[in-house]
Design goal:
The complex is a heterodimer of chains A (about 450) and B (about 475). Chain A has about 450 residues and is α/β, with parallel strands linked by helices. Helices cover about 35% and strands about 15% of the residues of chain A. Chain A has 14 helices and 15 strands. Chain B is of the alpha/beta class. In chain B, α4 packs parallel to α10 and α5 crosses α6. Classes of the chains: A alpha/beta (about 450), B alpha/beta (about 475). The interface between A and B is large, with 213 and 208 residues. Chain B: Its EC number is 1.4.4.2.
Chain lengths: ~450, ~475
């Protein structure tokens, strides 16, 4: 029992406990496990001290390229994170608690998640939201399954402007179910609206779109919502939350279910996780929402309090008849999202979106002025846009990476025929000087 | 406490943003432009700090209270793990997916690869995917892998078998993948009834999902026999890794017949639960399932560098956008590296010792439906107390007033008024003795003054809440602007 990490009992205490149990050794407690079932191997390294560990972790992190200038997005975005987000979400009362099953001693988490649900409803223009899902991709898959339940239909129409990773997640989720997924190939970085409308029929449960889409293009979804509703289908929109400081809310455009990834709200890049997924809908579909929902109520003395509500939808009660298998969610990441939004504030959030838009528009016009470079998107864009280069974009990106500039996401791997195209992302963190430096490097590489 | 929205004052500025160093762009077209800003709070930074600091004080947590919540493994979360995760916060996941990008992400990819190797060794599996984002997500991924295996072999499978003591996520995950559920009852010896299991098995069963030790905290000695029966029907064995913390270095699921496993890193490997997440649920498989693992796969090349493999025609695809909950995995990796081989074995030994100690000290006070040596948790029933009209939930509320987070109550569903206690290895004898004393007091109070238990808790910011009202009114969003 030497070399203990976080196991506090002394040899004397262990002896006392064994005596109280009535066994001679700890090993005796493992007697119910027959000898033939015992581990054949457990070949792991020796342990180390906290100090040695931190040095090792520093060395490991140092093997990643340092000081990368990010013009890449693809679902994860390099945004500012106010210091209060780390400090407040780093309160151990938040991060070392569990799911608030006992509401009286969990009002901190419960009220915060109620405030989070409120923020998501207000951003998206919807009436109800849950307390978070895993990430934006699984949120779209859950929304698709929710639409199948609500409509009792088995066909989905998914726009090709949805992130190729996310489309793969949706296909993987539905692969074993009796569901047809029709994907509509994008045209010039936008939705092929005519093809999408033609694909709608009486068995279509939902239209799945992303706004802005993977190419950065914004779309007014109003007409699409009307067309979907006319066929009895739902409109499911995946949105980039920062855009909602400037862009019309999906609720106002007629969406029935709104999802997205909350990483850009106060969660670090952290090599792709953790972040959180959000899902919001209208009141009439609340019982079909997956995951945990916090509701307001009162205690015996009439004081306001918050509880997990409508739990009869969930796996721990409904088992195989639950609306989803989800159990743990991304509560702490959702809390970070809430603190981010509260600290930036109403006007600040609108300004932040505006800043992203202004910087991206400046970058777009600067880069499009390079000889042979053109903008692919036909309509308006938000903080991402797609360029057609006069040569293969993979080669250009590889070349710029050598000077630690991640110039954008080349499309060859995701959209056949777009080998020369590059999606460039510009957030509020990129300075005018960095944008001009990108233009110079890109020009040299062409 | 007021909501943050109720503290809003029009015009109060928030955090200052980076400078606008470029010209203002033209407005978006009218149909795309938001007509009014979203109704976020207008509060000062100090308002935000005070509000959320004070809210946090309305939580019980591992750092403030003993938290013996059975099945959830609320062990101490080492602070250095938070620091370690912070080291990786600036790295963008897309970097690795760019042409030649792996070269610029060797630290992150190397960590994931090593973590996978360690998890494979710990569980006795051949390969691991780190993509699943939580335990239930791992279950769903694992069942998808099993479905792909059967599809590739041309097997026609329809059912997944689970014991009635299983976590609700097991049947829910199998149902998400389109399977029907066969539930096998628990025998008097505290685990899935072997004879009823044998009868339930048929050639249309795709998988058997087991938690071992199970949710009663008991280890199933027939596990090898169960696996043999399943395999005879070409059904695969799924190991729910929720209770892996009991058997580190003692049993490897891969050695005893399991084909697929998920590991809850936030339980066994000491990463914080975050008030309900993020978790992380890597999935390990035997060789026969490797072709179906999600993309991209991280592979180690001959020159010891790490690369991504995306050309995997038999893969189920993706269950998340990138590499999983990376930050959580950094913490689990650091935890394993720090504890090492001996330290991890000690985790299970001390967790099992602590649970048996509590069981021995309370079994004269509470009913113990399955009276045998337990693993990392013990399950009592409030049967004695029910005679006085006191339910498990009343005992739970009494504990809150005494400064303890309650054990899990009402689960597993097969025990009436269950009280499921999991102390974990990080608690001292002194802490447990104090808890034991209060549990005994609760048992005494149930006989002498049941009403006091019914009205508890009285010391919290709120007393028992009206859950019916919450469900009826469905007020889940503060709509007053």
């Amino acid at each position: 029992m030497s070399d203990s990490h976080y196991c506090p009992n002394t040899p004397d205490e262990i002896r006392e406990m064994l005596a109280a149990i009535g066994v001679a050794s700890v090993e005796e407690l493992f007697a119910p496990i027959p000898a033939e079932l015992r581990a054949s191997s457990f070949d792991l390294p020796e342990g180390m001290s906290e100090f040695e560990l931190f040095q090792r972790m520093q060395s490991l992190a140092g093997q990643n390229a340092q000081g990368m200038t990010n013009f890449i997005g693809g679902g994860y975005y390099d945004h500012i994170i106010p210091a209060v987000v780390d400090h407040l979400s780093g309160r151990a009362e938040f991060y070392t608690a569990y799911t608030p099953y006992q509401p009286e001693c969990s009002q901190g988490t419960l009220q915060a998640l109620f405030e989070y649900q409120t923020a998501i409803c207000r951003l998206t223009g919807m009436e109800v939201a849950n307390a978070s899902l895993y990430d934006g991709a699984t949120a779209l898959a859950e929304a698709a399954m929710m639409a199948l339940r609500v409509t009792n239909r088995n066909r989905l129409v998914m726009d090709g402007g949805v992130s190729p990773f996310t489309r793969q997640v949706v296909r993987t989720y539905l692969d074993n179910l009796d569901v047809e997924i029709v994907e509509i190939a994008p045209q010039q970085g936008g939705t092929d609206r005519a093809a999408l409308l033609a694909a709608l029929d009486d068995q279509t449960a939902a239209v799945l779109v992303q706004n802005p889409n993977f190419f950065g293009t914004l779309d007014d979804l109003t007409g699409l919502a009307d067309a979907a509703h006319a066929k009895g289908a739902l409109l499911v929109a995946s949105v980039y939350p920062i855009s909602l400081g400037l862009v019309q809310s999906p609720g106002a455009m007629g969406a029935d279910i709104v999802v997205g990834d909350g990483q850009s709200l106060g969660n670090p890049l952290s090599f792709g996780g953790p972040s959180f997924g959000f899902i919001a809908t209208t009141k009439k579909y609340i019982r079909n929402l997956p995951g945990r929902i916090i509701g307001e109520t009162v205690d015996k003395e009439g004081r306001r309090g918050f509880v997990l509500t409508l739990q009869a939808r969930e796996q721990h009660i409904k088992r195989h008849k639950a609306t989803s298998n989800i159990c743990s969610n991304q509560s702490l990441c959702a809390l970070r999202g809430l603190i981010f939004l509260a600290s930036i504030g109403k006007q600040g959030f609108a300004e932040l979106a505006r800043l992203n838009h202004d910087k991206a528009e400046f970058a777009k016009s600067t880069l499009a002025a390079i000889n042979g470079v053109t903008v692919v998107n036909r309509g308006a864009t938000f903080n991402e846009f797609t360029l057609a280069l006069p040569k293969n974009a993979d080669e250009v990106v590889a070349k710029l990476l050598q000077s630690h500039t991640a110039a954008g996401v080349p499309l060859a791997a995701y959209y056949p025929g777009m080998e020369n195209c590059l999606v460039v992302t510009v957030t509020e963190k990129r300075t005018k000087d960095e944008i001009l430096a990108l233009a110079r490097e890109l020009e040299r590489a062409l | 406490m007021k909501l943050i929205y109720e503290q809003s004052v029009a015009g109060r500025p928030g955090v200052k943003l980076p400078a606008a160093d470029v010209p203002r762009a033209a407005d978006l077209p009218a149909g795309l432009l938001r007509d009014e800003p979203a109704g976020l709070p207008e509060v000062s930074e100090l308002d935000v700090v005070r509000h959320y600091t004070n809210l946090s004080r309305r939580n019980f947590s591992v750092d403030t209270n003993f938290y013996p919540l059975g099945s959830c493994t609320m062990k101490y979360n080492a602070k250095v793990l938070e620091n370690a995760a912070g080291l990786f916060s600036p790295y963008h996941p897309m970097t690795a997916l760019l042409p030649t990008g792996e070269r610029f992400s060797q630290g992150s990819l190397g960590m994931l690869h090593e973590l996978g190797r360690w998890l494979a060794e710990i569980t006795g599996m051949d390969e691991v995917t780190t993509q699943p984002l939580a335990g239930a997500h791992g279950e769903m991924t694992g069942i998808m892998l099993i479905a792909a295996y059967h599809k590739a072999k041309g097997n026609r499978k329809k059912y997944v078998v689970v014991p009635d003591s299983s976590h609700g996520t097991n049947p829910a995950s199998a149902a998400m993948v389109g399977y029907e559920i066969i539930t096998v009852p628990t025998a008097p010896y505290g685990d899935m009834d072997l004879e009823l299991f044998r009868q339930a098995m048929n050639d249309e069963v795709a998988a058997v999902m087991m938690t071992c030790p199970n949710t009663l905290g008991l280890f199933n000695p027939h596990i090898r026999e169960i696996a043999d029966i399943a395999h005879a029907h070409d059904a695969l064995m799924y190991y729910d890794g929720a209770n892996l913390n009991a058997i580190l270095g003692k049993v490897r699921p891969g050695d005893v017949g399991f084909d697929v496993i998920h590991v809850n890193l936030h339980k066994t490997f000491g990463t914080p639960h975050g008030g309900g997440g993020p978790g992380s649920g890597p999935v390990g498989v035997k060789t026969s399932l490797v072709p179906f693992l999600p993309m991209p796969r991280i592979v180690k090349k001959d020159d010891d560098s790490y690369a991504l493999e995306t050309d995997r025609p038999a893969s189920i695809g993706r269950t998340a956008n990138f590499f999983g909950n990376f930050g959580v995995m950094v913490k689990a990796f650091a935890y394993m590296a720090m504890l090492g081989r001996e330290g991890l074995i000690q985790v299970s030994e001390q967790a099992v010792l602590n649970a048996n100690y509590i069981m021995s000290q309370l079994k004269d006070y509470y009913d113990l439906p399955y009276d045998q040596t337990c693993m990392h948790e013990c399950v009592f029933s409030a049967g004695k107390q029910l005679r006085h009209g006191v339910h498990a939930i009343d005992i739970a509320k009494y504990l809150i007033d005494r400064g303890y987070h309650p054990p899990t109550v009402y689960f597993p569903l097969i025990v009436k008024d269950a009280i499921m206690i999991e102390p974990t290895e990080t608690e001292s004898k002194a802490t447990m003795d104090a808890f034991i004393a209060v549990m005994r007091e609760a048992a005494a109070a149930a006989e002498k003054d049941p009403e006091a238990l019914h009205t508890a808790p009285v010391s919290m910011p709120v007393s028992r809440l009206d859950e019916t009202k919450a469900a009826r009114e469905q007020n889940v969003c503060h709509m007053k602007w």
